[in-house]
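FORM 7B: Structural annotation worksheet

SECTION A. Query
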Amino acid sequence: MRHRSSISSLACAIGVAVASLLAAPAADAPPAVDVRDRALALLHDGRFDAAETVLEAAVSAAPDDPGLSFLQAFATYWRLLYSPEDERLQEHFEGQLFATIELAEDARKRGDGDPGEIALWNGSAHLLLAQLRASQRRPFGAAFEAKKAKKLLEQAVAADSPPADSDFGIGTYKYYADQVPTLIKGLRALLFIPGGDREEGLARLERAARRSRYFALEARILLAAIYADDREGLFDLALAHSRTAVDDHPDMLAVLHGAARLEMTLSRPERARALTGHALALASRRPGTHPSVVATLRYHAARAEIAAFRPDRARTYLEALRRQADSVPEDIADTFSRLQRRVDELAGRRETDVPDDDAR
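SECTION B. Predicted structure
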C-alpha cells in the first residue's frame, strides 16, 4: 500500500500493532484463543480463505463476540494489504469494523465479558478505521480514530498487560504521532489529539523487541521499516532487526516478503532473490496461498532478478504474472509494462545498469 504522508505512515504501522495485540494468548487460553492463533497463522501465510473459514465457524457459535468479529475484519485487512485499490474490499472492511465497534459497545454496556478484552477489540477496530481513513486521504478522520483507539488500548493495557508488551503499542503511537506534518501538529492541540515523542517511541519499541514475550517480532519488523525510512536512514539497524526476524521465523511468508523489500531498498538484490525464492517455494507447497500474495512475491522476485542482471529469470517471473493476470493487484499491474521494458533492455544490453525504483 503506498503512503504519501506521515499520517499514512502511522496507518501503515497500525496493522502490525494490531497483529501483535492479537498474538498474545492468556495463560488459561479458551477455545476462542485457539481459533485466533489458527486464523493468524493462516493469514501470515497468505491463506485468507482458510482463515475466514475457521473464523466463520467460530462466529456461528458465538455471534456476539466482538473479538471474533474483529478477527473477521482483520482477515479482510490482510486481503487489502495485497489488493489496496480494491474499493469493494474497502467497503466490506469498513462495515466489519463498524460491526465490531457496535458489538464491543453493547458488551461494555451489558457488563458482559472482561473489560480489558472488550476495550482491546474496540480500540483495535478504531485503530484499523484510522488506517482506512488515512488510505482514503482523510487525515482528520484518521487522527480522530487514532485518538479513540489510543484511549481504548491504554484502558486495555491498564487492565492486564506486562510492561514490555504494552511498550509496543504505545511506542508505535508515540513515534508516528511525532512524525506528522507541522500543520497537523499545530492543529492537534486544538483538536485535543495526544502528541508523540520520537525518542520515547523508539526506546519503547526497542525494549519490546528485546523483552516482549508476544510482540518482539512485530517490534522488529516495525523498527526495520522505521530505520530504513529516509527520515531515519539508520540502515545497519534496519538490517539487523529484519535479519533477526527472518532467523526467528524463516518460513513465515509475511516476514520473508518484508525482508525482501528491505533488501531491495538497500540495493541488495542477491539477498532479496534468496528470500523471494524461498517464499515462493513455500507458497507452492501450501495449498490455498492467495493469488495476490503469490503475484506480489513474483513481482519482487522479478525486480530482484533485474537488479542482479538476470533478465531471463526475471522474464520467467513476469510470464507467470501474465498468466495470472486476473488476480494481479492493481498497483502491480500498473507497473508491469515498465518492468517488462527493463527486462527487454537488459536482455538486449547486458552491460546496462538498469535502475529499479519501483516498490510497493
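SECTION C. Observations
The chain has a mean pLDDT of 82. DSSP finds 17 helices and no strands in the chain.

SECTION D. Sign-off
Analyst initials: ____
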